[in-house]
Amino acid sequence: MLPTVARVLDLDVMRRGLPQVVAGASALERPVRWVHVSELPDLAGLLHGGELVLSTGIALPEDRDGLARYVRELAEVGVAGLVIEFGRRYFDSLPRALVAAAERHNLPLVVLRRELKFVAVTEAVHALVVNAQLEQLRVSEAVHQVFNELATEGAEPAEVVRQVGRMAGAPVVLENLAHQVLAHATAGRGEHELLENWEHRSRGVNPPGRTGYDPRSGWLVTTVGARGQDWGRLVLVDEPAPLPPDVPHPHAMLLERGAATLALNRLVVRDRESLERQTHRTLLSGILTHALTVSEVSLRAQALGVPLEGRRLVGVVLRQRQGPLPAALEAQARLRDFTELAATAIRSARLSALVGALDDEGVGVLIALGSQQDEHTSLEAFAAALRRLSAEAGRDGAAAEPVIAVGSSVGSVRDARRALLEATQVADAALHDAPGSRAAYYRLPDVRLRGLLHLLRDDERLQTYVERELGPLLAHDAEHGGQLVQMLRIYLEQGRNKSAAADAAHLSRPSFYDRLHKVERILGVDLDQVESCLSLHVALLALDAVRR
């Protein structure tokens, strides 16, 4: 920071002159860019602004209008202050017209009651100015180095925001254009104090320009975006402090560098999920893994525009019925598109929800229903919107039919984990149902035995049962590359109708019958016995659950 007028007056060399502020005391925090010694009455044309003018006043105008004009011109050019030494022209006081004009223009006017060597003042102040400029260069270099590394490493937005907050020593918030919080850094302060009622507070702060300071709130704000597409704001939240309108905020460069890094990283990772989805995913993951407390989830969701407190919460898990597994990049893109479809469906159904990827295959949704919203009606509206959007995307070859699984509704954030876990279990079970078998969505009663087996899939007794019933057949297929397990599955799914099963397997009846005999020999069972087939069918359903 450049030295202020107040800092200059506090220097030892200035204190020897017994300085006294006689006007413009409220502007003593103006920065001093340079010191200029002059006796010219028409000095303003030689200045650029930010100078501290030293004078004996020997050549100042004598008339009131001339003195007023002299001060006005200095104020208009933006000088930091005017210092007049007693002993040459003035001895005990300055002309009232001069003092009044300085007060009117809020220009710091200082008298020196003892004679000083102006060259000593100039040397001392210029040393401070040069040191400040060198320090600014060092800080600028450090900032650019840090954010260049973050950009090169493809740092997540949360890491960039944390770095800005650490270097500024103040809280920083990244928000979207709807004033919803995407990432934040508290800089050691209370999270609740920072994020509470954020949207309302943020909408009231709109400083001019891409980077601007709001003196009323103390917030420094810069726009985030690139190529003419702005998508958010980076906000430094600090206490209000006096800052002259022509003086840049000390953290403006830091905030702009952080915003540039965020914009660059967004361009680089354009094919990845949006910042909104990342933030939603973080909250859903925090609920499921207990990485975030209930109060943290509620506060952050509220700042994101999804109030959870006092709402009925419904856990939903979405999956897509897929054919052959796609390549990794294709699968990632497909999941990203599916997540965005789900978010669009939520908006279409006029619901409030957290929407984000849960794993490599599924999307989690935590719907927050108000007191006037019916649960079944809301879920049907969401399911209809998602299926319509998926069908539209499917016409372009980009989407498959979604499986919509719903857990129990709960009344608090604390129980949201249970709702999401139940929805996950329902989704895993429902994924094996025939496409188009449901009109809207699945719940636990809809998946029946398959749902029960998915609930028990981690039980070693169920795993032992699967191995006992199907182990030899699984080993045979693994060793010989056969598909006898699939033949058994088709036979049982066709209700033990051998002719229908042969058609479903696209085999001739003799070939299919031969495969069934192999199954009987390997497992040592009679497939004409109902109980044996029932036991094997349960084992196949349990195998699906265990493998999932």
TrEMBL record:
Q: Which residues form the Purine catabolism PurC-like domain?
A: 8-128
| All residue ranges annotated as the PucR C-terminal helix-turn-helix domain in the record | 484-542
- Stored Gene3D superfamilies: PucR C-terminal helix-turn-helix domain (1.10.10.2840)
Q: Which Pfam families match?
A: GGDEF_2 (PF17853), HTH_30 (PF13556), PucR (PF07905)
Residue span, CdaR GGDEF-like domain: 296-428
Q: Per its UniProt record, what InterPro entries does this chain match?
A: CdaR-like_regulators (IPR051448), CdaR_GGDEF (IPR041522), PucR_C-HTH_dom (IPR025736), PucR_C-HTH_sf (IPR042070), PucR_dom (IPR012914)
Family according to the record = Belongs to the CdaR family.
PANTHER family cross-referenced by the UniProt entry: CARBOHYDRATE DIACID REGULATOR, DNA-BINDING TRANSCRIPTIONAL ACTIVATOR ADER
> What's the protein here called?
CdaR family transcriptional regulator
Upper lineage ranks?
Answer: Bacteria, Bacillati, Actinomycetota, Actinomycetes, Kitasatosporales
